[in-house]
Amino acid sequence: MQTRPSSHALPRAWLRKAFAIAALACTEAIATDPLSEYRRMLADDNPAELAVARGEELWKMPRGPRNASLAGCDLGKGPGVLSGAYAALPRHFADTGSVMDLESRLVHCMVTIQGLARAEVTAAPFSERGAAQTDLEVLTAYVAAQSRGATIRVPQQAQDELDSYARGRDLFFRRAGPYDFSCASCHGADGQRIRLQELPNLTRTEGARSAFAHWPAYRVSHGAVRTMQWRLSDCVRQERLPELLFGSPASIDLTMYLGVLASGATMDAPSLRR
Amino acid sequence: MADPMKLRASMHVDRVEVKILMAHPEESGFRKGPDGSTVPAHFISNVTVQHAGREVLRAQWGPAISKNPFLQFAFRGAARGDELTVTWIDNLGETRTDRVTVA
Predict the structure, then answer these.
(1) Is the complex ipTM more than 0.90?
(2) How many CB atoms lie within 10 A of CB A223?
(3) In a domain, B1, yes or no
(4) Domains assigned to chain A
(5) Cβ atoms A69, A62 nearer than 8 A
(6) Per residue in B17-59, pLDDT tens?
(7) What CA–CA distance (Å, rounded) separates A124 from A140?
(8) SS3 label, residue A208
(9) Which chain B residue lies closest to A46 (C-alpha atoms)?
(10) Most exposed: A135, A208, A217, A248, by fewest CB within 10 Å?
(11) pLDDT(A194) > 90
(12) Would the CB atoms of B68 and A223 count as touching at under 8 Å?
């Protein structure tokens, strides 16, 4: 096949200009965080809203052996008060004499108000990939959504709230397991990342705020809403530590530690994560 | 029954911008479950949007649509307060219809 010089070749100056514009566009795209851009594009239509709608239905539906709804559940602001409740959790509850986070409190309400069996409620707290969301996930999403825009104020008044924070901080820095990892190994310095994911420095206020204010979140890669308990248990799994049991004191203490550091930020959950 | 859709419709000068978020598993029919068996295909095959007896959108979808699909489009010829009817039908014959008022 014969080739011949193109009769309509682009002028050299035009080409140079075109390349310069393309290069500029690339640097700009890298300069602005591509993940936050991605979140912004999807935020308007967060599929977490579907889970929130199901959670609301479930919250109001009479269920269990006692055929009761969760409307009388006290999340710390009085029975049935949801507005801003999630922004002040974990906290001390006088009726159980312990510190509870939202998810363990929801279990408590399902057991005491609806008469459901604890073992049944907590058998599979997180949905499998591709499966429908669990009751606990949609309820968590619904309750969290009622605190959108509220200021995070995780209490530090009762003695066991102070103790919980101290234990959470110790756990955060405690190195263990086959990798000799602690939470702080990944989340204790600025500018760390796994692959392309920037890891927040959870020992600093800004990092803790951005993390705490955005869970629960719709994980696009899972096609599901994931909760704070899931987030912690998956971190612990990646550290190769023994399984972090759902609603365990260790999980609540870690949440308490992050929540206290994040206090003052504005709650914006359920959010959207990659 | 299928979960309700999240619908929004708003006027932008003379265009109505419609945003539809559907709750659907959207199984392609190629994915394997935890036990190794194929998860049967389950996806939305037809979407229609009606305005005052007029069809303003008709879509034929296949198995390559993501879970909880989001659809956005705009059209002319409607006014504030008009009602739109959105319907989807999936390959198993399940269907869901929701209505939204143009804001």
Answers:
(1) no
(2) 18
(3) no
(4) 42-273 (1.10.760.10)
(5) yes
(6) 999 999 999 999 998 888 899 999 999 999 999 999 999 999 9
(7) 14
(8) helix
(9) B21
(10) A248
(11) no
(12) yes
